[in-house]
User: Fold these one by one.
Assistant:
Number 1:
Amino acid sequence: MTTRPGAGEPGAAGPGETRLLNPAMLGAASGAILVPLNSTMLAVALPSVMNDFGVSPAAVASLVTVYLGAVVIAMPLAGALGDRLGHRRVFLAGVGAFALSSVLAAAAGAFILLIVARVLQAASGALISTSAVALVRAAAPVRRRGAAFGLFDMLVTTSAAVGPFIGGLIVSLLDWRWTFLLAAPVAITAALSVGLWHPSRTGGEVPLGAPATPRPVDPVGLALLAGLLAALLALLLDGQTLALPAGLALPALLAALVWWERRVEHPAIDLRLFSRRAYTAAVAGVLGATVILHATLVLVPLLVERILRGDALASGLVLLGIFVLSAVAAPIGGRWSDRVGRRAPAVIGSVITALGFGILWLYVASNGTTGASLAILALLLGAVGVGFGLAGSPRQTAALESVGGAEVGMAASTYYTGRYLGGVVGASLAGLVLGGAVTAGGISLGFAILSAVAVAVAIVSLGLPGQATVAR
């Protein structure tokens, strides 16, 4: 049975214990919300972007897939830079660059320029994501990490929750371009909070300003990883011209990446992390969870706006349930995992998600284009959100506490590589299921596939630590 740490132990309660809600947490969360806030606001704007530039559903979905693919490529470099230069410095650089690239996206006059701006946002988002979780891990008391990541997830998910509503409001009253401009004040808030934070005053276990052991960058590994992901994107996004060469290149690039990364001392992707069962289960789980999330962000707005004849604001309100209830459940899942272990909340949350999408599949398939209710859709997506919230913070905590402090940048970047790779697959999956037309049958099939993915996530989550492991 897990016991409360005594006085003097790491994480013990006392006068010197770090508060969970501190400048580091608020600043890290303010920066981390830039990525999901931008994505969820853009989700409800996708039909407007499609109309403005005259592109197909598959093409507009590439705004999501190209962005996520670029994040995946940039993640290992971001983690290495954080370990080498300090996570606080990298975080500040990331939020500044994200604000600038968002302004470029708002000013884009052609679809290809919007794609370029999204790639720049992706590189900035990678710097933010890896360094934000490192800031939280370092600032949190050891025995309260589950609660700390639950609070972090709640703050970040709350932003994602209001994103569809704010995005729908902006698109309805102004224009989709204004959704990008909102990043500037958020970035300024994050930069001020983290820039004024002094790590030495928090009790964090790793000095985040100047790491003692700089980690060199692995350019060959990064190049092989970039080629592998480019081939994967080509295979997912192009069903004709590039499919054959991409399919042939994938196994060769994967074999070369594994061979190289096992030889170098400081690899871009440290495959030795996957010798730890908890870490492997966490990465596999987050990959599956983001397949679900990003496919949902493509399918639901198209269902609401193209089939049920709602507007962008209606899309935002329907998606609000998944993020609001996820934000509510996130700290519950984190605190629960501190008491019973990381495994149980993650498995139960994934099962709830699977049930929610299973009912969505049957409901949309039976009601077609006329009888579906927006309120029922929002309610079912709220159940999905509860599952996401319960599972998310225990999974992330398990991944980051399975490594030592010197490896946290690599562990975080590899974890987020899996997370955003899942997003690439999810958005591409939605585009492939829909093809060139948005139909109720295609969307219901997509929900059925996502239910099956959630079942798979529940199964792999059995590999997360139980109560006894967490107590040790």
Number 2:
Amino acid sequence: MLGVASGAILVPLNSTMLAVALPDVMGEFSLGASAVTSLVTLYLGAVAIALPLGGAIGDRYGHRRAFVVGVLGFAVASALAALGPSFELLEVARVAQAATGALISTSAASLIRQTTPLDRQGEAFGTFDLLVSTSAAVGPFVGGLLVGGFGWRSLFVLAIPIGIVSAGFAGLRLALRPAAAEAPERHAHRRAAPIDIPGLILLALAIVAFLVALRAPGETLGIAAAVAIVPLLAAFVALELRTDRPAVDPRLLLHRPFTAAALGVFGSTVILHGTFILVPLAVEEVLNESATTSGIVLLALAGVGAVVAPFGGRVSDRRGRRGIVVAGSLISTVGLAALAIPGAATSAAAICVLLGVVGLGNGLTSSRQAAALESVDASHVGMAAGTFYTARYLGGVVGASAAGAILGAQVTAPGVTTGFAVLAVVGVAVAFVSLGLPGRPPANAGRQRTLGDLPQDGLLPFR
């Protein structure tokens, strides 16, 4: 768990750390709030595009191998970001981080899934969320210290030694471990079918069209991209239904627990990344506090969630996923609604306390990932993880873009209040869709359930 998490922390760490550096990047490159958020939206959008391919690569060539390539590539991309002399080159480096981060995310989830008993999936992913979320929690605080002491470029330097250490651990320690659960993975690439390149291309084009439409609403390019989304998705679905080994099987979405988990994580990351845009800009631009203060405030959101996550996972293993996730979603909504009250965010301390409430709710929803993956056979877990994480990162793109659009070129207190009001509405929607999660503990916990075991939900078995 520690070995896999040491690489998996790179992806959230380099997302949350950057949040406190946005004001400094704005100043160095003379950008507005809506423009600088491209460092967040490009990163999250590129991850969303690359995730299905990352899952397919892991299924075909082995998730351990894909994990090592991912963490080494992330270290190289981080070095390029630290050295980039222009904002455009910085954006390119962020895309490179995203592409390699997709390999890390899908492979890490798959390695945890394949080595954990089904009756402890919630606890396992809760513990994994604790380790990974801790990096997200300390990210703003560490980022604030680094930005204050060494400048925003030092944020990217930090990822280089972490990537090297993680690659060495996974390549040497995990490769030598004779665990029975890893045995099928060693020869998976010899048996697997070719990667579904046409399907991945169509899906990537649909996601790119979505991102362009989101980035340029009302413009000619944005309108054309929005119109192209539907035919691209229709062509993608038609192709995947005729493919023996699809990159993303659309029939997976006919399974209610998986769909509820995917929609829930989409909405929860809209909230998370919207908050990570609103809070640093509000604290530093409206309240005139430092980047370090901004990091401490955000620590309440991710820190409380990280501590509570294992508890939420254990409860879901015993009581079912639905109740605890719905309760957590509603608690988060209460915190967001309080932040939306005019005058509630007039001090860093008040924001910190209310973000702690949001973090408490987020921690109780940690079993979504277990609900999404526990019905998928190990040979397809990369595909399922890629689909789940695609929903997560697309939610991040929407959240960051919406926050930037609401704030506009100038950060104001009314704009921040409006942003939190929108996020509170999203929180209600997340609680509603989470009603589709399983209401009881996983059945047949002693054996591996597969997609083929679930025809009653309309999900056809893989051929």
Number 3:
Amino acid sequence: MMTAHITTNGPGDVTYRWTRSDGASASDESLSFASAGTKDVVTHWALGSVWEGDTHWLGIYVDEPNHQDFGHKTFTQACAP
């Protein structure tokens, strides 16, 4: 599970998508802000058999309003529920 915090300085809509090291494309998602503030967004990635101890990463890209890639978080260990 990965959590990102999206912050705005005023009202408006934010469109974002998760990025990940296996190149899979996530669908765009959106948030509406009535005023300035922060909202948390969460994604889950079940690696399954692709894990094999490799290093992977998850990131977030905000498409609207500012077309900005916020980088990624690298991880090398799998977690079991």
Number 4:
Amino acid sequence: MIVVVDDEAATREMVGDYLAMHGYSVTLCDGGDALRAAVDQALPALVVLDLNMPGEDGLSLVRFLRQRGHVPIIMLTATASAIDRVVGLELGADDYVAKPCELRELLARVRSVLRRAGAPAAAGAAEPRAGSVRMGTKWLDLDARLLRDEDGIEHPLTSSEFSLLKAFAENPKRVLTRERLLDLAQARDAEAFDRAIDVRITRIRRKIEPDPARPRVIRTVRGAGYVFSPEAAQT
């Protein structure tokens, strides 16, 4: 389990959704009290911790976590001074990432810290391998350019289907217009791709949605485009 502690709901949910999308079990906490309650239930595999929070600050929580054992900690820092970062590292934090954070960088640091701590690549979760993203009932293997189900059975994708899924995976919770999808998918024949984009998404939904008739993983936003919902991608 990874615990994300941040008093800003938008940041907390964005980080939590992204980590969950990559196979990690995530608990969200809005401050020190919630973190303490979560730790009482189970010791996390890693804590992503905002340093600047009202009430009990991040440095105090680093001390608390160190008293409970060796819990890997990645600090999120926005306006924290260099001294705060140094103090946090000296207290036992393992790494820090500046806010607003680049989610791919944060994910890389999470994996690196967990490896150094001797934890599995996706501690407490079901991530089958690095480079895979949970997409509804399947895993999208970005390196092999195919889908795998929970049993490891491969489900090949056409080039255009993979390009669309990759675009959604890299832009979670963002409404993507057809024009934006064309750019992200780098469609060579943009006109033909645009005409068939709805058909391709329908085919993709048949492969990844628990109920293709009621899509929740890739939803249609009327008059705007499509959006990938990571919170639905684990069901």
